[in-house]
Amino acid sequence: xxxxxxxxxxxxxxxxxxxxxxxxxxxxxxxxxxxxxxxxxxxxxxxxxxxxxxxxxxxxxxxxxxxxxxxxxxxxxxxxxxxxxxxxxxxxxxxxxxxxxxxxxxxxxxxxxxxxxxxxxxxxxxxxxxxxxxxxxxxxxxxxxxxxxxxxxxxxxxxxxxxxxxxxxxxxxxxxxxxxxxxxxxxxxxxxxxxxxxxxxxxxxxxxxxxxxxxxxxxxxxxxxxxx
Length: 228
Fold this sequence. Notes:
Elements: H1 3-21, H2 28-35, H3 39-45, H4 49-53, H5 57-69, H6 76-94, H7 96-107, H8 109-134, H9 139-164, H10 171-185, H11 211-225
């Protein structure tokens, strides 16, 4: 049996038993037996029954780190937004499993505590990246990085919970909009691509004029606005 197949069988068995007997009343041995596997096989895939419930946070954090590492100073906030989308997409791909987890963690205090600890890991990763991106060692910059990271995580979790409760049909669009609002709260440093400064903004429109005839007017418009 392949590892993915065994892992999925164990997870399916665990959630079925949690629903039938309750989380506290279900043991590792129960899960392995329901899955038709041995206890040793269980621990080959999961460290505890808690691990069956939660996604592979280590893998998700590694994905975030990889995405952030590909950014430049000018695209730091873009990378943060795309990293947040990666995490949301993971939950969406889980589908019903993510919703079952949400229901379970809402009922079991110990699981809620673990979920809070997991969220803190994401926030710490974003805070460290944002602090490095800002390149400012002052205490005010450190506080700004902390606030930005908290806003990033809050935006993601707000949209994720809406999706888990079936309140949105387009969570990806919602999280993108939420991240635009977060970025607007924390303008990027001058000179970065995120800040939208130092470049040229073009507005597309349709006209019956030839391009050669239109270019002089466009140039005068741009040059006239440069001193504003």
